[in-house]
From TrEMBL:
<keyword id="KW-0677">Repeat</keyword>
<dbReference type="InterPro" id="IPR005991">
    <property type="entry name" value="GUAB1"/>
</dbReference>
<dbReference type="InterPro" id="IPR000644">
    <property type="entry name" value="CBS_dom"/>
</dbReference>
<dbReference type="GO" id="GO:0032264">
    <property type="term" value="P:IMP salvage"/>
</dbReference>
<feature type="binding site">
    <location>
        <begin position="264"/>
        <end position="266"/>
    </location>
    <ligand>
        <name>NAD(+)</name>
    </ligand>
</feature>
<dbReference type="InterPro" id="IPR001093">
    <property type="entry name" value="IMP_DH_GMPRt"/>
</dbReference>
<keyword id="KW-0560">Oxidoreductase</keyword>
<feature type="binding site" description="in other chain">
    <location>
        <position position="321"/>
    </location>
    <ligand>
        <name>K(+)</name>
    </ligand>
</feature>
<feature type="domain" description="CBS">
    <location>
        <begin position="90"/>
        <end position="151"/>
    </location>
</feature>
<dbReference type="InterPro" id="IPR046342">
    <property type="entry name" value="CBS_dom_sf"/>
</dbReference>
<feature type="binding site">
    <location>
        <begin position="314"/>
        <end position="316"/>
    </location>
    <ligand>
        <name>NADP(+)</name>
    </ligand>
</feature>
<keyword id="KW-0521">NADP</keyword>
<comment type="pathway">
    <text>Purine metabolism; IMP biosynthesis via salvage pathway.</text>
</comment>
<dbReference type="Pfam" id="PF00478">
    <property type="entry name" value="IMPDH"/>
</dbReference>
<dbReference type="Pfam" id="PF00571">
    <property type="entry name" value="CBS"/>
</dbReference>
<feature type="binding site">
    <location>
        <begin position="264"/>
        <end position="266"/>
    </location>
    <ligand>
        <name>NADP(+)</name>
    </ligand>
</feature>
<dbReference type="GO" id="GO:0006166">
    <property type="term" value="P:purine ribonucleoside salvage"/>
</dbReference>
Length: 498
């Protein structure tokens, strides 16, 4: 990356813009977003290890679209093991089924329908055989205690795994037909759904329902490559704190099948972090290890030295974060990522840009600054897949609550087993907010909608820079510094002016 004009201060994402360069790339689909870091991600996005952001459904959905979700450090190891096993039992290609039995009620179905972006229930018998499909419209204008066998549709297309993977699956269950075969199979599936006037239908393997395919899911299957482990199962990330028995927690995560370990604390450039990281590296010698957070080249060097493959960068940019206002500590995120990724590259390591992402442009800028992936928290909390309760405000808008991991709420959660006096002492250092409303965007209520939105932006950014992959992009990008009116000029106007 090079600057158009030499900056005189540290810069946030809002302070900078990308200058277009001569390009030979004929299509945005020619951009390959695969990361250069060892996580195997084919989409450079990570759902943050925050309680309000990442649970098993977020992890599953992110990995299916080539990205990664990191379970927070506050989840007990046995629960992480259960959630990991659940994610790994999901179809790597087809969206998860919400299945119910014929005698369950419309009342229960309505409560569950909105847990998945595809908003459907597949009715099966006790052996998982398809009986019918229930969509939201089927539950209107009937008594709430009507049983599902009364309202379910039985005349919907039922797809087989074989036909959707163009007749071939590899040993790992992954489609092995070429991209053209997959494209053809997905285009046909979409046409069948359209003709049947449904947006979603079940997928069976033999007689058992293993997933559903939606029209949007069919399109996505031709754009994304799932992030899979050696057994063909979806990848899972999980965080480890620097306190407690770090070796034991790491061992449990590794045994649970977690693929990527994230050693995480607010001030990553401290001795306790270096010690914890060395223990994690020793306990999991072959796992990709991420550690943070830091914002300086020195911080990167110390963490790479202690065993990190990837350093997580960002102090204070997070939407739930009050660290900068409490302590004045941090660093404008664009400059932090730029300096840290240069230091990491010298050591053959990588950085993740963590926090402060509100628009696709922020992700593009983090990649231009050299990040191998970009971690997003609060933006993803407000999606169907976010683990929070779905609430509605007085205007009927859906939202979920988000909160910071250093908020009083999170600290009281984390210290539940301890004496009240000790808990009160720990809650003093509050550096995050305990409650905020993250509205579901009616146009993009699912995390996959946001992933589509973001990757569309960054694919396009890369072609403007004449780059077909993130490495070339970081190499070729030309970045200029702008003032506030430069930033404002870039925004669309939803109403007339003057
Ligand atoms: N990226 C960011 O800007 C920030 C992220 N967070 C997130 O919040 C979560 C909780 O992190 P954290 O608060 O570190 O809690 P942790 O449970 O990870 O504990 C941090 C440990 O480091 C010690 N410590 C020393 N100096 C500091 C310091 N300046 N800030 C914090 N701890 C310090 C603490 O001791 P003692 O408590 O006795 O001081 C404690 O033992 C993590 O997920 C983290 O990523 C939190 C703040 C900022
Ligand atoms: N200073 C604090 N930082 C926090 C807290 N909780 C999370 N975080 C950091 O924010 C990012 C996510 O940023 P976002 O803008 O996408 O929401 C997360 O990964 C942490 O590094 C907190 O309580 N205080
Ligand atoms: K902030």
């Amino acid at each position: 990356m090079r600057f158009l004009n030499t900056p005189v201060t540290d810069l946030t994402y809002n302070d900078v813009f990308l200058v277009p360069s001569s390009s030979r790339i004929t299509s945005r689909f020619d951009v390959d977003l695969r990361t250069a870091d060892p996580t195997g991600a084919t989409t450079p996005l990570v759902a943050a290890n925050m309680t309000a952001v990442t649970g098993k459904r977020m992890v599953e959905t992110m990995a299916r679209r080539g990205a990664l979700g990191v379970l927070p450090q506050d989840i007990p190891a046995d629960v992480v093991a259960r959630e990991t096993a659940w994610v790994k039992s999901r179809s790597p290609h087809f969206e998860s089924v919400r299945s119910m039995r014929p005698h369950d009620t419309v009342h229960d179905a309505l409560a569950k329908l909105r847990r998945h972006a595809h908003a459907s229930i597949v009715v099966t018998d006790d052996d998982g055989r398809f009986q019918g499909l229930v969509l939201e419209g089927d539950c209107q204008q009937v008594d709430r205690f009507t049983q599902l066998h009364v309202v379910m549709r039985t005349d919907v297309p039922v797809f087989t795994v074989d036909e959707l993977t163009a007749g071939k699956t590899s040993d790992s269950g992954a489609p092995s037909a070429g991209a053209a075969g997959l494209y053809e199979a997905m285009a046909q599936a979409s046409t069948r759904l359209e003709r049947a006037r449904v947006h979603v239908a079940p997928v069976v393997d033999g007689e058992r329902v293993v997933g559903v395919i939606s029209r949007q899911g069919a399109v996505r299957s031709t754009i994304y490559t799932p992030n899979l482990d050696a057994n063909g199962a979806l990848k899972v990330g999980a965080a480890v704190g620097i306190n407690g028995d770090v070796a034991d927690k790491t061992r449990q995560l590794v045994e649970a099948g977690v693929d990527v370990l994230v050693v995480d604390t607010a001030h990553g450039h401290q001795r306790k972090m270096v010690e914890a990281l060395s223990i994690v590296r020793e306990t999991a010698p072959d796992h990709p290890i991420v550690a943070g957070n830091v914002v300086t080249a020195d911080g990167v060097r110390d963490l790479v030295d202690a065993g990190a493959d990837i350093v997580k960068v960002g102090v204070g940019p997070g939407a739930m974060c009050t660290t900068r206002m409490m302590t004045a500590v941090g660093r404008p995120q664009f400059s932090a990522v730029l300096e840290c990724s240069a230091a990491a590259a010298e050591l053959g390591a990588h950085v993740w840009a963590d926090g402060g992402v509100k628009y696709p442009r922020d992700v593009a800028l983090a990649l231009a600054a050299g990040a191998s992936q970009v971690m997003i928290g609060s933006w993803f909390a407000g999606t169907w897949e976010g683990p929070g309760e779905l609430n509605q405000d007085a205007d009927g808008r859906y939202y979920k609550e988000s909160f910071g991991m250093a908020s009083t709420r999170a600290v009281l959660n984390r210290t539940q087993g301890q004496e009240a006096f000790e808990r009160a002492r720990k809650a003093i250092f509050e550096e995050g907010i305990s409650s905020s409303k993250m509205y579901l965007d009616p146009r993009r209520p699912g995390v996959e909608d946001l992933v589509d939105h973001i990757t569309a932006g960054i694919r396009s950014s890369m072609t403007y820079a004449g780059a077909t992959n993130p490495r070339q992009f970081a190499d070729r990008a030309v970045v200029g510094v702008q003032n506030l009116s430069g930033y404002e000029e870039g925004q669309a106007r939803r109403e007339s002016w003057g």
